[in-house]
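Predict the assembly for these two chains.
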Amino acid sequence: GQQVMQIPQYQHVQEGEDFTTYCNSSTTLSNIQWYKQRPGGHPVFLIQLVKSGEVKKQKRLTFQFGEAKKNSSLHITATQTTDVGTYFCAGINAGGTSYGKLTFGQGTILTVHP
Amino acid sequence: DGGITQSPKYLFRKEGQNVTLSCEQNLNHDAMYWYRQDPGQGLRLIYYSQIVNDFQKGDIAEGYSVSREKKESFPLTVTSAQKNPTAFYLCASSIGVYGTGELFFGEGSRLTVL
């Protein structure tokens, strides 16, 4: 079945450092979503990428969708303490028996030290 | 304010007891979902419903049951058959059908089995 692997599982950074989390799917995706979950909170939608090679920016956050539509990344420039939380990718399968299925990665837990 | 309301926020249950988690939404969304979240794992889909009086099993439906008698409501029952029910349960909804749009999450219900 479809698998979505996310690395790293944990990332500790000093405030001001950059951060990147990577998402890799075992199958081709039709689109990919990113969510942020603050400690003790619930996931909140950040963005959806649809096109091959797509790059989108939200202030200090840059999202990329791979050319083969099997991987994605989220990069945060100059982290702040407000960036603390778990970042999840969620891929939607493009075909086969799992067509349309949304699968979440395990998440990357980001800690930012002031 | 529009949104998803889950209750209770915290719930304790003895082994062998069934428990029902409530999920209500006033977003007028057609699709609703139940996810389970365990530490170090991504969100895993329990059940989803795309229309009233219809629902489908997700990846980990065993030991759970749902109903969708009203568009606004999608309660989840954790039965005594669920072998490891202690977890954080998240209800979500989306405007479009499964796999097409962003998910809006409730604040979650944390179930602990004593």
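Chain A is about 0% helix and 55% strand. Chain A touches chain B through 24 residues (CB under 8 Å).
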